[in-house]
């Protein structure tokens, strides 16, 4: 540590916690798209310029840390949140920013620049209390399915012709044209509870493609977004407020009867993968909606009583990382099978190829029951 930093006597733990708490603001300031998954953020790694939206993650607990799954950029700078800022500034300034500069930037950003001794607050204890008190169930802010269907234009044209109109209608995937709603100008994927009768939240894809000027997703005939709110509203994908993807498996309401009957589930990454499986007549699919497999999702799988788990994550480095994580958690609980995709993901795979890849595995499993 430099003499200047030694004199400033920064509380690095407190600065790291404050940076973690405000990391979404920082990402917006740097025009970086991201998904807030509850306990962590998923994003394309801005350090090496990746294009995989699940290729990098930032934990939102305590002092935070980050991981680049595709190029291991965190190993060059270290995995602390300050290491992430150091890497981010190095890219921004097109030069190697040292740790002292990164710490000073963080100190200024968080208001910790003053050289004073303060009594340290036991924030770890506060975070622990919040974690203990966090409910495993969703709140009662449910939206009945008939209201969902009446407030969006179904099906969403954005996903046609990649997916059939019939499958989009079946899953109530619609377009939000209400400028007063947070999902305005997005193709909206409702996320239903286990009964399929109430929407717990939703995930919306901007109908616009990426602007080359600002890297946000907005109408190219209007100016680029400015300010935090406009930048948040122009990310590629966005979850509804307070929805926690860590506590959710997409399609459980529709697949559970098939899963219970055959004691088998197929685990994939996103809703589009589920839609393509369904178009191929395969009804055992569940999707993670994120870049990791959590304890709660594992418990949800176990509660269905399955014996067999088919893993079919995306055909990229991030998908491989997720697949290894799932297998590590589940290999002693279920019989594990892998379907290796020929395209990037199931959604990009033709229906006939989905049948060719999955049906032999399903047939083998069902014959064992």
UniProtKB/TrEMBL annotation:
Q: Name one Pfam family in it.
A: Toprim_4
Q: Which residues form the Toprim domain?
A: 263-345
Query: Is this entry keyworded Endoplasmic reticulum?
Result: no
Which Gene Ontology MF annotations are present? DNA binding; isomerase activity; nucleotidyltransferase activity; zinc ion binding
Q: Which GO terms describe its cellular component?
A: cytoplasm; DNA-directed RNA polymerase complex; primosome complex
What keywords is this UniProt entry annotated with?
Answer: DNA replication, DNA-directed RNA polymerase, Isomerase, Nucleotidyltransferase, Primosome, Transcription, Transferase
What SUPFAM superfamilies does the database record attribute to this sequence? DNA primase core (SSF56731)
Segments forming a coiled coil: none
Q: Which GO terms describe its biological process?
A: DNA replication, synthesis of primer
State if Isomerase is listed as a keyword. Answer: yes
The protein's matches in PANTHER family, at most eight in alphabetical order, are given as: DNA PRIMASE (PTHR30313)
Q: What is this protein called?
A: Putative DNA topoisomerase-primase
Q: Which organism is it from?
A: viral metagenome
Lineage of origin: unclassified sequences, metagenomes, organismal metagenomes
């Amino acid at each position: 540590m430099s003499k200047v930093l030694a004199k400033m006597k920064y509380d690095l733990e407190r600065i790291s916690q404050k940076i973690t708490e405000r990391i979404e603001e920082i990402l917006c300031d740097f025009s970086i798209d991201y998904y807030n998954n509850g306990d962590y953020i998923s994003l394309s790694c801005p350090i090496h310029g990746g294009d995989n939206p699940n290729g990098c993650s930032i934990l939102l607990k305590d002092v935070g840390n980050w991981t680049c799954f595709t190029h291991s950029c965190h190993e060059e700078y270290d995995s602390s949140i300050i290491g992430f800022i150091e890497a981010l500034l190095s890219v921004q300034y097109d030069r190697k920013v040292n740790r002292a500069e990164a710490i000073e930037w963080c100190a200024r950003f968080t208001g910790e620049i003053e050289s004073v001794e303060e009594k340290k607050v036991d924030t770890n204890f506060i975070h622990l209390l919040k974690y203990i008190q966090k409910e495993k169930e969703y709140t009662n802010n449910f939206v009945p399915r008939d209201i969902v269907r009446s407030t969006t234009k179904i099906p969403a044209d954005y996903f046609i012709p990649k997916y059939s109109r019939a499958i989009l209608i079946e899953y109530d995937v619609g377009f939000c044209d209400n400028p007063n709603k947070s999902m305005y100008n997005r193709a909206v994927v409702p996320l239903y509870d286990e009964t399929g009768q109430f929407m717990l939240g939703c995930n919306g894809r901007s109908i616009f493609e990426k602007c080359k000027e600002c890297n946000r997703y907005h109408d190219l005939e209007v100016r680029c977004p400015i300010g935090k709110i406009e930048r948040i509203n122009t990310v590629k994908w966005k979850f509804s407020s307070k929805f926690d993807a860590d506590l959710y498996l997409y399609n459980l309401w529709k697949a559970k009867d098939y899963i219970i009957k055959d004691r088998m589930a197929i685990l994939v990454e996103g809703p589009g993968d589920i839609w393509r499986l369904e178009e191929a007549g395969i009804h055992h699919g569940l999707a993670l909606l994120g870049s990791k497999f959590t304890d709660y999702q594992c418990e949800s799988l176990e509660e269905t009583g399955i014996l067999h788990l088919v893993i079919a994550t995306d055909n990229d480095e991030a998908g491989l990382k997720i697949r290894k994580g799932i297998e590590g958690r589940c290999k002693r609980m279920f019989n594990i099978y892998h379907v290796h995709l020929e395209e990037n993901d199931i959604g990009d795979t033709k229906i006939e190829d989905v049948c060719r890849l999955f049906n032999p595995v399903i047939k083998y499993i069902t014959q064992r029951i």
